[in-house]
Fold this sequence. Notes:
This protein is α/β, with parallel strands linked by helices. The protein has helices spanning 2-14, 22-37, 79-86, 134-141, 158-164, 198-208, 252-267, 283-298, 316-327, 330-343, 349-371, 392-395, 398-403, 409-414, 443-453, and strands at residues 17-20, 48-52, 90-95, 147-152, 167-170, 190-195, 238-242, 271-275, 376-380, 418-425, 431-438. Strands 1-3-2-4-6-5-10-11-9-7-8 form an eleven-stranded mixed β-sheet, sandwiched between helices.
Amino acid sequence: EAYLSAIEAANDALNAYVAVTPDKARDMAKASDERLAKGEGGTLEGVPLGIKDLFATEGVHSQAGSHILDGFLPRYESTVTANLWADGAVMLGKLNMDEFAMGSSNETSYYGPVVSPWRAKGSNTDLVPGGSSGGSAAAVAANLCAGATATDTGGSIRQPAAFTGTVGIKPTYGRCSRWGIVAFASSLDQAGPIARTVKDAAIMLKSMASVDAKDSTSVDIAVPDYPAAIGESVKGLKIGVPKEYRVEGMPEEIEKLWQQGIDWYRDAGAEIVEVSLPHTKYALPAYYIVAPAEASSNLARYDGVRYGLRVDGDDIIGMYEKTRAAGFGREVKRRIMIGTYVLSAGYYDAYYLRAQKVRTLIKRDFEDVFAAGVDAILTPATPSAAFGIADQEMNSDPVKMYLNDVFTVTVNMAGLPGISVPAGLDTKGLPLGLQLIGRPFDEATLFKAGQVIE
Ligand code: GLN
């Protein structure tokens, strides 16, 4: 009830929830109370969560921030949300996001931008919460849920977490089932939690993760007791600091924060080593070929026949065209055009195939560093703090927005786990995050080490 009232009071201003489900929340909470009264119950019994609109929730608003899914009510539940409900969690509603998870500021949503609960000192300018999981991050930061689900294809969990002073982890590719999550770029997408503390994120991920016969890319590997890693010492842990992440034009504050993080680890008894990830600079351009290519293919299914919106035309082709023209927003159309171009005959080898080769090189860079004994890699999470809504510079050129993903996309390209932990405030009083990148399926080390920053 407290969360429902908080949503009622704050959501008009923040626009974090696109649908609130009070009846469902009360029913689930009641069932949870009954289980607890019988001495039963899971690890998330009665914990009220917000769900990113990208997750299919049975009979509940699931539109991926898009107009083209108007009125779509799934007849099935995503595996990740089903896992959460099986452990007793309670759904408060669905959270705003960039359309089809394409964006870094939550401004591409059909439902309008999410407003961050944060303000710069002495300013009243509305700031973005980051994206694409902007609703998830804002809702957690503003206390409109105890935790939220999110997804990350190129940074969409970690960047909004960094912008809002929350914790976000993208687990290893294959750790969570993608079944029932609207596909953006299938070889990069992963679900994960956004939470207030590293421990909360550990508890949530433990529940969300599972192998799943319905997703052949989910991996059959035991899910460790992540919360048990909380409080363990980092003495002797080897933390790598990659020199290639000192990108040109990086603000001094980010540089300072990174150094502060290094000092914290040294003080906690970890060993700091400089490492090299030589192909880092190719990650962003390669990502913006692979992700749109896969997206253009995944989005072909929205044709006015199977889901949501339909705009009639003179014939079936006319109907497809009118539906897609009216249903997709600008950024989604841009991605479909780029993706279709790089996959087309004659360009496939030059763009898509080449990007996939670059991806292998990026992955090998990480493998070499981990083979040399490094346990986790420390980098800034983002190249800046949150910017303003409708910021002229960020919106003047799509590439400016894409550059915000420079520290996060490498992790998706290599399929590795990455966590963003709030590390302090900039001179304007806005949150900044540090990122830790781990070995495949070693999220436990990220939780353990993440606590040092927190
Ligand atoms: N900002 C990136 C993009 O627009 C990443 C999005 C994501 O991780 N879903 O593609």
